[in-house]
Amino acid sequence: MMEVVVLRLGHRPERDKRVTTHVGLVARAFGASGMLLASKDVKIKNGVMEVAKRWGGNFYVEICENWRAEVRKWKTEGGKVCHLTMYGMNLPEVIEEIRKEAKRSKLLVVVGAEKVPAEVYKLADWNVAVGNQPHSEVAALAVFLDWLFGGDELHKKFEGGELEILPSARGKKVLKKAVD
Ligand SMILES: C[S@@+](CC[C@H](N)C(=O)[O-])C[C@H]1O[C@@H](n2cnc3c(N)ncnc32)[C@H](O)[C@@H]1O
Questions:
Q1: Which pTM was predicted?
Q2: Complete DSSP assignment for 95-116
Q3: Hey, whose CA ends up nearest to atom 3 of ligand 1?
Q4: Beta strand 163-165 with 174-176: parallel, antiparallel or unpaired?
Q5: Which residues contact ligand 1 via a Cβ below 6 A?
Q6: Domains and CATH numbers, the chain
Q7: pLDDT means per 10 residues in the chain (180 residues)?
Q8: Given 31, 45, 46, 113, which is the most exposed site by the fewest CB atoms within 10 A?
């Protein structure tokens, strides 16, 4: 599977707690390897990591104090950067090119909160809109990852962990795994 990491910019601890947590949960559930959080909000990191521990897989969250340095390092290492913004090129026009590149190089997907600094638009290899209408970073990330992975991410196995859902047409079935 491709290596995709999400960079969450502009998180305001007092306002964005729930949305940033959802960015992390969507990143994990839709096939990303990890999330870099450009804010020293350890509570968000711990909350998402707690879910990851219970539900399995290797997803990680890292606090990234200097996101500019992180993006430059990512690019120096040969990684590509895709910034999700309603002002960008519409997803259907660019997804094939991005998918092709992401099979060769790791991909950093940047999502903002409020206003994203102008330099992000320049640093990005692609500025991509999930439709050119304003909506949400959570929705944009979910749709982008689903198009990138072509739906395969929904079959991803999350090894380890304590809980696993046994899909059922009605009711809730959850397997509690033996943990050593
Ligand atoms: C509350 S929105 C702010 C909208 C912002 N003015 C923009 O540049 O998209 C927060 C984040 O949601 C994401 N977002 C919102 N609408 C989007 C869209 N249509 N396509 C891609 N990303 C979008 C972007 O990552 C944005 O930084």
A1: 0.97
A2: HHHHHHHHTTS-EEEEE-SSPP
A3: 114
A4: antiparallel
A5: 84-87, 111-113, 116, 129-131, 133-137, 140
A6: 4-176 (3.40.1280.10)
A7: 95 94 98 97 97 98 96 97 98 98 98 95 98 98 98 97 97 89
A8: 46
